[in-house]
Each structure stands twice: as structure tokens, then as C-alpha cells.
Amino acid sequence: MPRLVVTSLLLSHFRSHRRTELQFDGRPVAIWGPNGAGKTNVLEAVSLLSPGRGLRRAAPEDLARRPEAVGWKLRVGVESLHQIHEVETFAEPGAARSVMIDGKPAPQAALGRILRMLWLVPSMDRLWIEGADGRRRFLDRMTLSFEPGHAEAVLTYEKAMRERNRLLKDAVRDARWYGALESQMAEAGATIFANRAAAVARITATQDSAEAAFPAADLAILAPEGEDGAIGPEALAEALAAGRGRDMAAGRTLSGPHRADLGATYAAKGVPAAQASTGEQKALLISLVLANARALAEDFGAPPILLLDEVAAHLDAGRRAALYGEIGALRAQAFMTGTGAELFDTLGPTAQGFEVREENGLSIVTERAIP
After folding, report:
1. Beta strand pairing call for 362-368 and 352-359
2. What stretches of the chain show up as alpha helix (H) in DSSP?
3. 361: left (phi > 0), else alpha (psi -120 to 50), else beta?
4. Three-state secondary structure along 285-319?
5. CA pair distance 116, 303, nearest whole angstrom
6. Quick one: which of 133, 117, 126 has its CA closest to 304?
């Protein structure tokens, strides 16, 4: 069966790692150690094999090890659908992140053609009870996993919107200044709407057809009152033009995909996710990530790489075992972190184990058998 696997990872002057070299054999990876030792930094490094800023959304300059500040570099061996690739990504001091694939410069979007990746991090545990911004990012990450070009549509839309907002704040009234920007926003915005809707439909279908150990969530893309959540480019351009006066009074654009939200309901109970218990909210998130992974395994031809930071939080022993069973059934390479090896004891020899410790400000990683 084709697989997506990280086979090797070199971190140079990355976060707390001065130089760390790791080899992986395709099994799930369990990483344990005390808080602050550098476990999540390993997952963050792997997350930079996808377009964007990675699982912490950090700027390139924030990834460099201190106090050296000499820039940072990652070199990664990858097996993707029976093809072998070497990926390098790095940033010199004060420079943007660069990507090399098989020795040739490449745009970040090209990473999505080699690998598909999903992650779950502790900051997402409050996804359903905090602001819509986090839910939109979660929705767009799911969407990006199916359609790598979604990132380009989002960037195009946001760039044009920033320029339009600048005109609004400056109280520019000449319609000619707005036309080209609103046309760009309308084309990109309609693509964003369509991509998001397709991703939600795909995940919903996968949840409905699977016997899973985690509760299913009914998903819906929520548009602001009075807006259509699946608007086309012509209608969106008309809405933007018609809303200039209102937007000028507010000093920002008040309609479009940047105003959408993701709604979720605990299907079995008919309860909004925001009203579910902390443990249920975590279980719903895991369910969505697993459904996303199953859909990608069907569509892309191999399961995505999973990054699950502190995944055992809020999970009892039974649900931990169920999660590990789902990962095994997917045959996905999952990178998981926790504070102790005992959190992964049911994995045993089916996973690789690594212990991370901190010595004199450096992260030291040692491969260990899972007890």
C-alpha cells in the first residue's frame, strides 16, 4: 500500500535543538519527556513540510535557536506514494523561509503535492468556545489538506482585502480604485467558499460511512446574517460594491469568506460542541481529524502524516487505546507527544519511541523502546 512517511529528520539551530538527527521506519512515533524539553519542536519541524507557518504559526525569525541567531535549517527524507524525496527548508537571519525539493528551489505550495498533513495541538482544545478566527483556521487547514491550491486563494483574497481596507480607512470614494481589488476578492473568495464546502461535505460523508470509536460531529459553515455561504464571484463582487458605504463607516470589509464560521454539533446528543464537556470537545476534534485522514487516504492514495501534540490530555486509557487503534487501522505515520512513556504503553513495539530531555539549554533526543 502506498504511504506518506518521513524517513529522516535533521534539525539545525531550530528552536531548542542545535543539531538533532532522527531516523524513522514508518511506524507511529511516540515522543515523551518533561514540559519544555523540546518535544513539540520536533512536531513543529515536521509541520513545516506543509505550506504555511506550521503548527505554531510562527514567523521564520522566531524559529531560530537563541542566542546564536544564525538562522535555521531542516533536512527531511520523505517517501511519498513510492517516490523518494529530499526536502530542505530554511531561513537566514532576516529572510523569508525557503524550500528546496530534490535540490531545486520550490514554492511552499509544492509541498502539498508531495505530502498531506494534519495536526492537533493543545491550543485547539478551546476551538469550540473561543472566537471564530481559530475555527476558520481549522476549517482552512482541513480544506488545504484536500486542495493545496486553497492556500493561494486565501493569500490572494487577504492581500486584496488589506488594500481595500486601506482605501476604506482613508475614505477614498472613487469607485475606480475599488474595482480591480474587489474583482480579485470576488474570484478568490468564491473559490474559498467552494473549497470549504467541498471539504466539509467530504468529511461529513466519511464520518457517516465509518464505524469510529469517537463521536461524530455535524458540521456547518456559518455565514454572517444576511449573507449566502456559497456565493459566486459575480454576486460577491456586487455585494462588495454595494457595501462600500457601510464598510467605509466601519473601516473594514464586512462581507466575504473572512467572516464565515464553522459550526459543529455533537451528533449523538444533538448538543452544540461549545456546550459539550471538555472531554467530549477533545473527542470531537479527534473524530474530525481522523475522518479527515480517512478521506485523504481514499482521495490522495495514502493516509496523511498526523501530528498529535499532547494527544493524551483529557483522554482516559480506553480512549487512548481507541485512538492508537484508529491510527493503526489507517496505517498512518503519526507523531505523538506526551510527558511520559506510560501514555504510549499500549502501542508497545508497533511504534518507535523517543525520549527528549534538556541539558544545558539543549534538547537531546534518544531512541527508546516503549516499555
Report:
1. antiparallel
2. 39-47, 111-114, 132-146, 150-169, 175-209, 233-242, 244-250, 278-300, 317-330
3. left
4. HHHHHHHHHHHHHHHHCCCCEEEECCCCCCCCHHH
5. 8
6. 117
C-alpha cell of residue 209 = 460511512
Amino acid 225: pLDDT: 60
Tally of residues, the chain: 371
Domains of the chain: 1-115+304-371 (3.40.50.300), 128-294 (1.20.1050.90)
Q: What DSSP string describes 212-236?
A: -SS--EEEEEEPPTT--TT--HHHH
pLDDT, residue 210, reads 72
The CA distance from 98 to 73, in Å, is: 10
**Cα–chain center distance at 139:** 9
The pLDDT of residue 165 is above 60: yes
Measured CA angle at 312 (ends 60, 133), to 5 deg: 45
Retrieve residue 117's grid coordinates. 498533513
Q: Is the pLDDT of residue 227 over 70?
A: no
Helix H or strand E encompassing 36: none
pLDDT at 205 over 70: yes
The cell 467530504 sits on which residue?
Answer: 202
Least confident of 20-24, 210-214, 219-223, 268-272: 210-214
Cis peptide before 28 (omega within 30 of 0): no
pTM: 0.92
Percent pLDDT > 70 in the chain is 98
Sign of CA dihedral 158, 162, 164, 169: positive
